[in-house]
């Protein structure tokens, strides 16, 4: 037979620390009130910016290679290799993005209105 004195008697409700996530406080919740409303540009502006960045990424290795060949000491061959890798990644991302946009356009065009 167990004795009731074995189990400690704690006042758990009194030991709970209230935070601003608690419903008993009158402070606004961080999660609900800090929803941002970013002002975004239209699709054409965003897409043209991405194409412009891709163009810059594609031209960077050529420009760095020209600087190395002209003997510019501020540019190293490792910088050229990094720029080439970045441009390859940018082309892969752009290819994937174009594929996703085309798929989305196909799905939208197949919807019945």
- Calculate the mean pLDDT score and round it: 77
Q: In angstroms, what is the radius of gyration?
A: 29 Å
Helix content: 55-70%
Overall body shape:
flat
Q: Beta-strand percentage?
A: under 5%
Low-confidence stretches: none
Number of helices: 4
Give an overview in words:
- It is flat and about 80 Å long.
- The protein starts with 11 loop residues before the first helix and ends with a helix.
- It has helices at residues 12-15, 30-33, 43-69, 77-110.
- The chain is an all-alpha fold.
- It has one domain (8-110).
- It is 61% helix and 0% strand.
Quick take:
The protein has four helices and no strands. It has 113 residues and is mainly alpha-helical. The chain is flat and about 80 Å long.
Topology:
Elements: H1 12-15, H2 30-33, H3 43-69, H4 77-110
């Amino acid at each position: 037979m167990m004795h009731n004195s074995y189990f400690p008697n704690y006042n758990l409700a009194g030991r709970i620390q209230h935070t601003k996530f608690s419903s008993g406080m009158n402070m606004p919740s961080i999660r609900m009130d800090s929803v941002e409303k970013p002002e975004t540009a239209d699709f054409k502006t965003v897409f043209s910016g991405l194409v412009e960045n891709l163009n810059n990424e594609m031209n960077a290795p050529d420009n760095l290679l020209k600087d190395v060949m002209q003997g510019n000491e501020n540019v190293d061959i490792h910088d050229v290799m990094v720029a080439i890798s970045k441009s390859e990644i940018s082309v892969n991302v752009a290819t994937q993005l174009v594929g996703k946009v085309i798929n989305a356009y196909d799905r939208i065009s197949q919807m019945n209105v």
